[in-house]
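Hi, can you check this record?
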Amino acid sequence: MGLSATRIRDTNRRDRLLLLAAIAQALLTLLGAAGEECGLDRMLKTNTSKKRTRSLLNQGLDWYSALPNMKPDRLELLMTTFDAGVRRHAIFREIFGVRSASAFATPRVASATPLVAPLL
């Protein structure tokens, strides 16, 4: 990864940077998987092969660069599928503080005291 050419004195800083790079790579791979899951990957293929010809990471990079100019219906389809993919993985639920879809379906019992004071 070229770390021998860098001058990072603080090992904690280096570790944080590597963690961010790993999270970014995982999210881009999930974006590529979301594109494949919802069928948008056929727009990236240059041939009619049924097999994957490009990695999920490369597909995710393509989808990420296409987001600003994507048609709204395709964008919604891709982002909905991506959201479902992120929610399926416990590590992302913990990192981003999201709940799984099943957590929204269960009714919550109202407590007598509110957790957050209302703003006046």
Q: What stands out?
A: Confidence is low (pLDDT under 50) at residues 104-120. Residues 11-101 form one domain.
